[in-house]
């Protein structure tokens, strides 16, 4: 298959910025400034290659993701610049204290995410034991950092699904033909349950 050649700039904006050097000797943001991107500069072949690589459907998708990535890069670059300026004004002890606090914050964030992952596994197991299938999106609604709140949310979700199943059984036994068995024919019923959860304000 013939390799598609892209402009050097185009895909750079889709990735994280690379460390850069400041030739003037000033404070560096740590990232090289990407050239301005213009969608119309792409050839049809290059545009098709970008769409294929990132699973995009049309030109607007390409333009949108590039603008989003560039905006994120600009915010990150500005944050790094401010961080460098802050450090430049600190003495040795202040820098060490600042770095210690940053490390503690990173560790706390890692532990928070790990705790949520473990909570999500437990919630998924609890629902599976009750023969209730779910999705990651539903678990994200049910799970919070508070174990008691998570347990209560899982219980309410399970009760909702069970009640829907009972209603389905009643309709079936009275001669009506329900459109689907709750939580038993794919993701549609899960999506409905997720909508119900949002309506009942079961959120983190």
Automatic annotation (TrEMBL):
<dbReference type="InterPro" id="IPR025580">
    <property type="entry name" value="Gp46"/>
</dbReference>
<feature type="compositionally biased region" description="Low complexity">
    <location>
        <begin position="1"/>
        <end position="13"/>
    </location>
</feature>
<protein>
    <submittedName>
        <fullName>DUF4355 domain-containing protein</fullName>
    </submittedName>
</protein>
<feature type="region of interest" description="Disordered">
    <location>
        <begin position="1"/>
        <end position="37"/>
    </location>
</feature>
<feature type="region of interest" description="Disordered">
    <location>
        <begin position="68"/>
        <end position="101"/>
    </location>
</feature>
<dbReference type="Pfam" id="PF14265">
    <property type="entry name" value="DUF4355"/>
</dbReference>
<feature type="compositionally biased region" description="Basic and acidic residues">
    <location>
        <begin position="73"/>
        <end position="101"/>
    </location>
</feature>
<feature type="compositionally biased region" description="Polar residues">
    <location>
        <begin position="175"/>
        <end position="191"/>
    </location>
</feature>
<feature type="region of interest" description="Disordered">
    <location>
        <begin position="172"/>
        <end position="204"/>
    </location>
</feature>
